[in-house]
Design a protein that fits this description.
Helices cover 0% and strands 45% of the residues. It is built from no helices and 30 strands. The chain is globular, with a radius of gyration of 18 Å. The N and C termini lie far apart (50 Å). The mean pLDDT is 97.
Length: 257
């Protein structure tokens, strides 16, 4: 399926949508824009991808999920690799599961991923060349990484923070490996703010500024009253313009490893 140059959205799912193994769904590939590439509506039963989805040239978001979206099996999703996304690569407002192969997001007008509810990664996320943060986890959302996330790799930095975790009740859990290589415009690799909670779990690895990377300010910034950062795993911080870790007044940083 190829969809280009629509007056509104590429795909709007209000039922059950299954992009099966070896199937392709291409949206906005010929620089002909759509409003939002895919909307998985709140009324939907679910959207599953086991094939390949490419989304480019959107006037707003690449993928808006308000139901349950699952990338599974050998499923691959590419957003913004051919032509830019004007807003977020993925805006998740409900349940998003990445248990498939690779989701790659690049060239976004704001953030790579805006998570406002529940997102679980058991595959590979690659996020590069975003105008704002690579990942924004906010609005009491939970982001769980059980596999690998690469941010700002291949000399393609984020325009703002690599990961922004913020807000009371917001929880970011790293149980796998996160690599944040490059940020720009005086921004940090990880900012944990406004009563957010960030946990680097037992055996988890957090690499910042590795592979001759460049972090434009601090490696980790733990800010604001009642903001907590727990490290039970391994953290490597290199190549920062300013500090490795900044724990501000009122914030709590617990290193148990």
């Amino acid at each position: 399926i190829t969809i280009d140059d629509t007056g509104d959205n590429g795909v709007v799912n209000q039922g059950t949508f299954d992009n099966t193994v070896n199937a392709q769904l291409n949206i906005g590939q010929n620089n002909d824009d759509v409003r939002i590439g895919i909307i998985n509506a709140a009324s939907s039963v679910g959207f599953t991808n086991s094939g390949t989805i490419t989304i480019d040239s959107t006037r707003i978001d690449g993928l808006l999920n308000e139901g349950t979206f699952t990338n599974q099996d050998n499923g691959k999703i590419q957003i913004g690799l051919v032509a830019s996304i004007n807003n977020a690569g993925i805006l998740n407002r409900r349940i998003f599961k990445q248990t498939g192969d690779t989701i790659k997001i690049a060239n976004t007008g704001t953030v790579g991923i805006n998570n406002q509810d529940s997102l679980i990664n058991a595959g590979l996320f690659i996020i590069e060349n975003t105008t704002a943060s690579g990942i924004l986890n906010n609005m009491e959302a939970v982001f769980i990484n059980d596999s690998t996330i690469n941010v700002g790799t291949n000399n393609l930095p984020t325009g703002e923070n690599g990961i922004q975790n913020q807000g009371s009740g917001t929880d970011f859990q790293n149980n796998g490996t996160i690599n944040i290589e490059r940020t720009s415009n005086n921004t940090v690799a990880i900012q944990n703010a406004a009563k957010g909670k960030f946990t680097n779990s037992v055996a988890a690895i957090l690499n910042i500024g590795q592979n001759d990377g460049s972090i434009a300010e601090d490696g980790i910034s733990n800010t604001d009253d009642s903001t907590t950062f727990f490290n039970l795993g391994v953290i490597h911080v290199d190549n920062t313009t300013n500090n490795g870790i900044v724990n501000q007044l009122g914030a709590a940083f617990n290193n148990a490893e």
